[in-house]
Specification:
The chain is α/β, with parallel strands linked by helices. Helices cover 31% and strands 15% of the residues. The chain has one domain: Aldolase class I (TIM Barrel, Alpha-Beta Barrel), CATH 3.20.20.
Length: 372
């Protein structure tokens, strides 16, 4: 098996195993948080026949926002904007799932409706700095712990996000349970100090994630729902477990009962996940660690080269590989990897905010050939 062996993930029949990772670009329209007018072209460029794209993280409610100009999926206007994106991807023969997102405590009052405090499982202030609505970095504030009756309302937001994703023409959804955002805040003992049904034991701490996934499954069916986790990650003041496998096993075991389309794991080697450890330095491998505990398909992500991704597939550790920065700079990444072609280098200074520069202007191989 290789990156270019066809594979079935749940209900998704893929012609290859090169997946576009969810990539926050912070280019949605201010105030409405509708995908901007360039978004259909951005996603169209990266679509390929039988290829799977995972959308940028998309907040399920106004309180779920943690960064300026990130898109939502809770208004009719946002649904209409995303419908243009899915149409463009489908015209190229691609598949696209929407990543459902709630940042929890990783936000600032300037991004919250009415300037209120962000919500979280418990009132534990994150280390580091938050994005202000102005785009500047400021110290985090201590979040407000969700009341028991409010948790149901947040779960309803996930359900509405799944419903709206269906209306917008997506092929499925992915629940974002990684990178220190709300589901991971519930999963981890340090950020979840609750004593009710959503805290205490690892099984109860997993309840929020499992119920968010259940809400998505009710709408889509299990074969069109995935979950992203970062068990070894430290992004956004998360993780640092002595034994990440033991800490996450109750959640992974609970998720396995749904028979989801896939489990999407961020490797420790990925920047923002575990320090950006390079390949071959003995860093643990999330895909290999959880493969014995997961009966279905696994997508792995972690700054892989094409050759490294092929090796992961050949070893059977994962069934597909998600590429992030490489997909930003190479709209035709699957073609380039299949041909062993040179890759464009990404310009980090254009990753967030901005206009078409660093967004829709990276050249494809065909464009380079024509200009040669």
């Amino acid at each position: 098996m290789s990156l270019f062996t066809p594979v079935r993930l749940g209900e998704f029949d893929l012609a290859h195993r090169v997946v576009m990772a969810p990539l926050t670009r912070m280019r949605a329209q201010p105030s409405t948080y509708v995908p901007n007018k360039l978004a259909p072209e951005y996603y169209r460029q990266r679509a390929s026949t039988g290829g799977l794209l995972i959308s940028e993280a998309t907040q399920v409610s106004p309180t779920g926002q943690g960064y300026p100009n990130t898109p939502g999926i809770y208004s009719a206007e946002q649904v209409a904007g995303w419908r243009e994106v899915t149409y463009a991807v489908h015209q190229r023969g691609g598949l696209i799932v929407l990543q459902l997102w709630h940042v929890g405590r990783i936000s600032h009052p300037s991004l919250q409706p009415g300037g209120v405090l962000p919500v979280a499982p418990s009132a534990v202030r994150p280390a580091g700095k938050a994005f202000h609505a102005s785009g500047e970095f400021v110290p985090f504030e201590t979040p407000r712990a969700l009341e028991p009756n409010e948790i149901k309302s947040v779960l309803d937001d996930y359900r509405l996000g799944a419903v709206n994703a269906l209306a917008a023409g997506f092929d499925g959804v992915e629940v974002h349970g990684a990178n220190g955002y709300l589901p991971q805040q519930f999963l981890e003992e340090r950020t979840n100090q609750r004593t009710d049904d959503y805290g205490g034991s690892p099984e109860r701490r997993a309840r929020f994630l499992l119920e968010a996934v259940a809400a998505a499954v009710e709408v889509w069916g299990a074969g069109r729902v995935g979950v992203r986790l970062s068990p070894f990650g430290t992004a956004n003041d998360s993780g640092r477990h002595a034994d990440p496998v033991a800490a996450y096993l109750p959640a992974v075991s609970g998720l396995a009962e749904y028979r989801l389309a896939y489990l999407h794991l961020i490797e420790p080697r990925a920047d923002g996940a575990g320090g950006g450890a390079p390949a071959g330095d003995g860093a643990p491998t999330a895909a290999a660690a959880f493969r014995p505990h997961w009966p279905g398909r696994i997508i792995t992500a972690g700054g892989f080269t094409g050759a490294e991704a092929d090796e992961v597939i050949a070893r059977g550790e994962a069934d597909a590989v998600a590429f992030g920065r490489a997909f930003i700079a190479n709209p035709d990444l699957p073609l380039r990897l299949s041909q062993g072609a040179e890759l464009n280098r990404p310009d980090r200074s254009t990753f967030y905010l901005g206009d078409h520069v660093g967004y829709t202007d990276y050249p494809t191989l065909d464009e380079l050939d024509r200009s040669a």
